[in-house]
Amino acid sequence: MTTTTTRTAVTAQDRGSALTGTGALVRFILRRDRVRIPVWLAALTITTVGTAQSFQDLYGDDADRARTAETMGTPAGLAMTGPAHYLENYTLGAMMSHQMLGFMAIMVGLMSVLAVVRHTRAEEETGRAELVRANVVGRHAHLVAALVVVTATNVVLALLIAAGLGGLGMAGITWPGALLYGAAHAAAGIVFAGAAAVTVQITDHSRGASGLALAVVGVAYVLRAAGDVGDNGLSWLSPIGWIQATWAFLENRWWPLLLALALAAALVLVAFRLSVRRDVGAALRQPRRGAAAASNALANPIGFALRLHRGLMFGFGVAMLLLGITYGSILGEAEDMLAGIDVFSDVIAEIGGASVAESFASMVMVIMAIIASVYVVMAALRPRAEENAGRAEPVLATALSRTRWLGSHLVVVLIGSVVMLLAAGLGIGLSGASSMGDAAMAGKLVGASLAYLPALWVIAGVAVVLVGLAPRVAALAWVVPLYAFLVGYLGQILQFPTWMNNLSPFGHIPQLPVDDLDLVPLVVLTGLAAVLAACGLLAFREREVNVT
After folding, report:
1. For a surface tag, which of 148, 247, 285, 410 has the fewest beta carbons within 10 Å of its beta carbon?
2. Which of 358, 404, 528, 397 is nearest to 456 (CA)?
3. Highest mean pLDDT among 135-149, 204-218, 424-438, 505-519
4. CA 357 – CA 332 distance, rounded (Å)
5. What's this model's pTM, rounded to 2 decimal places?
6. The pLDDT of residue 1
7. Cis-peptide into 513, omega within 30 deg
């Protein structure tokens, strides 16, 4: 009896000590993310409510929605949106669930993955977790605190989305459906947070943990798409398929969310079990033994920078290729898809062009270029991440100058921007040429994609200027692609004023293949990018390293 009682007491004490300091870490995370969390919540809520409003403007009557449902019933339409069951009664609410749940699940997954990795593996990678653990902090406190904050963030997002949609008072968007629609977002975010909790145990680098977790998000989307197109049950292997199977605004089934919560709980349990099998700062996957001597490429600044960027470049390049293939597969159906939709018809009429497919391709090209700018910002801010992690200072203590170090990263960013647009152009070009039966479209669309290079270079220049002049606020470089998305995508649909589009570097690129090639804006943007890059390099040469 005494032995059993003692063992029980020790077990309870161990569990308590493993979570010691969790409350303090939760408050610390909330303090650190006092800007990030509200920005994510506002962006996702505004996107959802704004989309619902635009759907009402675009598809105001039953005839418009019926035509859209007919188009979305094609394999390409189902792959991009969701299951065909929503098309049986295509109200505004059903349209939201069909077209937006899958896309928003990716965005919520991105938010959750980045937050979990930022407050767990990134803390270990920089050595801060070890310093914190030297105090009275339990083994699981960091992970639990991150999961508590991410879960709470997703719950708040669910309530904001539900309140925003329910308050619109639109036909087909009911309060019960809005609550379920919001809860589906939270369920997806919590599942992918659990996936990130596992991946941070596997790899010893934050970028690797993020990449693995985001790959899970991508696989979930692909399984959902394959299941919806083939109607073969594969979507039931995907958390995104589960949340879409709630039939929000149609049947309002809550039970599929239980599958998501059960998977999230299992993933968190696995993460806890794995975390006790490794040391702080280490990972379950042991790093490979390097070569006895570095290759000649690593002895060169550009080769070394390329080694650091290769994972992000490869992963993003594959994503851009797949995105291009997806868009290209529906070019042959573009005319039928857009028939009867007045807003899109007006936009295409304004663009002009030899065919609806070419005009639609020019609209899509802007979106893909803006997505490529996300890679540019991530890669251009990598030097700042190296600086914050303390890895830049030892490198700069050698004979390598600051200008060459930062310049080598910039060169790789410029090369990567070419890779992104070329991958997107090849994807949409080859797929579009196949769907239209016109081989000449491949070359046209590849050339149209590369025309956006100067715009990407300007964004890279803005990021370098911020790294050199104002490193504390270098994250403001994200404002440029965000603004470009608002005016480049929503602006075309909602008819924003022309001057707003002119503030974006993408607004000055000729919309090939329907426009004639005008070299003047391309040369001007390239010159501006060169000036910005030069200013950033000069400023970095003069300032202190490791500015916090």
Report:
1. 285
2. 528
3. 135-149
4. 7
5. 0.78
6. 42
7. yes
